[in-house]
Structures are given as C-alpha cells and as structure tokens.
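From the pipeline queue, job 12 of 40. The input is one protein chain; the requested action is below.

Action: predict structure.
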Amino acid sequence: MSSIIQLLPDHVANQIAAGEVVQRPASVVKELLENAVDANATDIKLIIKDAGKSLVQVIDNGKGMNVTDARLCFERHATSKIRHAEDLFTLHTKGFRGEALASIAAIAHVEMKTRQPQEELGTQIVIEGSKFVSQETAVLPQGTSFAVKNLFFNIPARRNFLKSDTVEYRHIIDEFQRVALAHSNIHFTFYHNGSEMFNLPVSTLRQRVVNVFSGKTNEKLVPVHEETEIVTIEGFVSKPEFAKKNRGEQFFFVNDRFIKSGYLHHAVMAAYDGILKDGAQPSYFLYLTVPPNSIDINIHPTKTEIKFDDESALYAILRASIKHSLGQFNVAPVLDFDRDSNLDTPYHYKDLAGAVPTIQVDSTFNPFSDDKVNKHYAGSGSSGSLYKKPAATASWESLYVGLEQEPEFPASAEISFESEEVTASLFNDEEVEHAVQNVYQIHKKYIVSPIKSGMVIVDQQRAHQRVLYEQFLTNMTVHQASSQQLLFPLNLYFSSGEMELISELKLSLVNTGFVFEETNDDHVVISGIPVNVTESEVSILLEQLLSDLQDGIPENSFSQNDSIAKSMARSLAVKTGISLTVKEQENLVNGLFACKDPNVSPFQKPTFITMRVEDLDKKFAV
C-alpha cells in the first residue's frame, strides 16, 4: 500500500510560502529594502516599473556577498541573522526567517548582482521560478542589486487578483515611506517609470518626516521625548488643528521597525482626549526603543505586529509623554503657574529707590466760583493741566420742568422712511402657514409630514445624502456643473500619495464644479468650488474623499463618479442634531421625493418610513 503523506518539492513549498510573504509588489519592495538596510547600506535606490508588476529593483552600496552566500541566500530558511533559537529574542535586524528571497524567486524572474568591498569581481545570478538559469563572475560596483521581474508570471490567478496600477503603486509608496522614516541616516531614492518620486538625503528625524510628506508638515509637528527604564520615546505628534479624517500619517516604530498596534494607538488618542473633533485623527511619528528581549516579533508573517512584555506600562508612559508635549508647547490647555517675565522689574531699575508720592492741594480752588477757568497749576514732574468748569446754567430747576407732560411726536403721516419697495413675495402667508402646519422636526433628526393615509417620517441626514448624491452624479454625467469663483484661491497641501489620488480624480472633480488653477507635487491651488459647497468645507470634503478612496479608485468611469458623488454627499449632507427651519424642512422633503430613487440613501439605507392611521389606531386599541 502506497504512502499517503509525501514531502512537497522545494519549488511547490516555496510557492506556498510565497502566499504568506509576497502578497503584492509592495511585499517585494519591503523585503528587498529591509535586506539592503541589514547590509549596512548608506545609499539605497528603489526602481519601479508598472507599479512593480514588471520590475522591482533595489540597489544598495552595502557589504555584499561572496559566491557561496550569493547562491545560498535563495535557499529556504537560509539566513545570516540568527544562529540559535535564543537569537530570536535579541534581534537587531529586519529579517531573520530566510524565506523572503526563496519565496520571491519562486514566483518571478530574479537577477542578482553582488560584490564585497574587498573583492575585485562580483557574482551575477539569474533565477526563474526557483530554477537557476545562470551564475557568472562579473565586474560590478560594491553592494547588491536585486531585480525582480514579471511577478507572479507562473501563478496567473495571483496576478489577476492584483489591483490597478494606482492602488499597487500607493501600497509601494506606503512600504517605502515606512522604511525611509525608520532610517533617516540612509540616503533613499525612488524612481517610478523613469521619474524620480523621492530623493531623501541623510537628515534628522524631523527633516526626514518633512521631506517624505512635504508641504507644511514642519509647522504641524510637536516633538515628543521621554526616557524611562522601560522605553525611550522620540518623535513627533501633530497639533490638534491639523488632524485629518483618515489615518494615513500614523507611524509607530519599535527598534526601527514599523509596527501596527491598536493598543498603542488608543494611548495616543487618549492623550488627545478633549482637544480633537469627533472623528478626527492626529498624525504621529513615534519611535520607541525597548530592550530586544522584552518584545516578540515572530508572531506574524509580515512582522508588523509585536507582543510586548508590559503593555500597560508602555501605554501609560506613551500617553503621559504625549500629553506633556502638547501642554509644554501650549497646544493643549494646561494650568501654568510660571511667572510672566513681562511683569518683572527691568534690570536697570534694580538699584533705584522708589520715589515718595506727594499730594498737592490747590487751596484757592472753589467749585462754586463764577470763574470759567481756574488758575493753572502743575505738579512735580508733570506738564500741568487746565481745569475747565462747565458752563453754569441759569437755574438748575429748569432742567426738570415739563417732565410730567407727555412728549409730543409728529404725526405718522409726516414721517418718511427710506426703504426698498417689495414687488413680490417668494412665499405668501398661506403657504407659510400651510408649511408650518404640515412639517415638523423631531429631536433634530427626523422630519414628520402628514399624508392622506397617515404620516411620513424622513431621516434628514439620509434624505439630504440622496438629494446631493443625485445632484453630483448628474453634474458629473451631463458635465453641466456650475462653479463659484473664489476671491482668494485656496492652497491645500497633501502628501505624495494623496496627490496621486487627486490627479486621478481631477477630471471628475472638475465636472462637479471644482476649478484647479494649479497642481504641483505637494499642493493644489483651487480657484473655484461647486455652488453648494462653502470655502471652509473644501478641505474637509477632499480629506473625506481621499479617505473613502484610499483602498483604490474604480477603473470604470461611472463607478469612479459614483464613488466621488457618494463621498461628497456624505461630507456635505446635513447631520443629525442640526435644527432646520420650516422652509428648509419642506425643501428637503420635496427634494427627496423629486429624486429618481427616494426610498434609499446612496448607501442603501432607508430614507423614510410611512405610518398609516390604522397603525396608530391599533396602538390605542384596548
């Protein structure tokens, strides 16, 4: 009887491992960049073509590998990072499992060139789908170059599941930014389809953050510094007024490794408690240094989750340090008992004796005298003054004569008022009275209107979302949107990833009524906005739009317009808790039932319900 259990061939095992390690081109970027950092490189270049689907290449000037290491690094579980199991608890490097290169080589065409500084010649290896094609000696610069081409060429199903180039490119930017922010002592360069996207020279942490996110990031940052026996915290948090709707600029680094931690994020949000608007997310770039033996990194294939020995103490320290920084830089309200230096005595007055005040009395002054002007007198050190007595009245009793009588006013016919002539009324009294009798707002959330069979209860937020959604969708489809020009154009700053999204959405935004006067690498200049959008809502609207579409922009133009219309309707719709006038309530109800599909909101939730008189009668039935 034949055995059922068999050992998998290496190339099959590598492809299975690749499913965990390599999910998309960004996974290859992460692994190759981290290998370059572990090689002690001081200059790293990332070259991308077609969002990584055609080419991902990383070139570094690190220590390189010899012939044996160059061949062995593509074997499973071959690593230079650890020797014993105990080394897992004292990790100082990025990688340690020895699966990344083997997994990448199993699903792509890989070309590696490497040379050590002390060697004159290097090694060039070509692998296709785990099969060694060639290995040659070549004249190469110091360091290592990995070129990964045609990702998932032998797994068509995985390649078909990749998103659009825009989405995959944004994931690559995210991975690049995480590595670049963790190592400000390394020069990083990023090229995409032949264009330079990032050039980050060696700099301080603050400069690296500003160089990565550009714009006016520098003025948003508040430094954080705390040293304890448990953890050392360095980094920056943003001022509350610069908080965003999305969580794009939130980074935790533990021992120079990017991690995700909902627990630590909650500590940051707790520090901002009471000074952030609802739904706002602060930006933060926090670098935590802890003893390597106090954390466990090996709990997730992507190594972005870490288990801490004492999470509660770390939570308290992080929260307190951020609160202290916000208070120290007068970002958050604090009790300040320090003395105001402006009230201190000037230095050149310290040896001067105080002058004794003197009182001078004019013995000749008579308030009842008939003199209209008293004599001039001057005090010590003053230029003097003149005292003028008010003009005397003939008799003070005459001031109160006639107060018992009623005042006489001219006849109303003799009075003329300057006013505009009203030629017509938008709403007559009967209509207003009719509206008051037929529309009511309950708890600043629902609008109730009677109908023949009973009454209609409308959710004001969902109803307004449906009205705005159909308006925006019509404007984008028919291209008849009107704009209101701004007296002073708006300058809005965004990160490079957000600018990519705005570039993709620009045509659709123009169709809704936006006018882009200028589009740069880190900001846009808007000179016109849709008619139903106020100037203060523009930044909120665009931030919400970028947050809603951060997972990808639909390639279909109609789906793209639909997504934009939904996002804008969500941002601009009247919220629950807003009091509406009678006319606003009436217009909202009329606008809802004039829509093509008034029954549901753009997010497929009911906008109104009806209650019949029979249903009410049943409630009162005994």
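Job complete. Residues 372-387, 422-436 have pLDDT under 50 and may be disordered.
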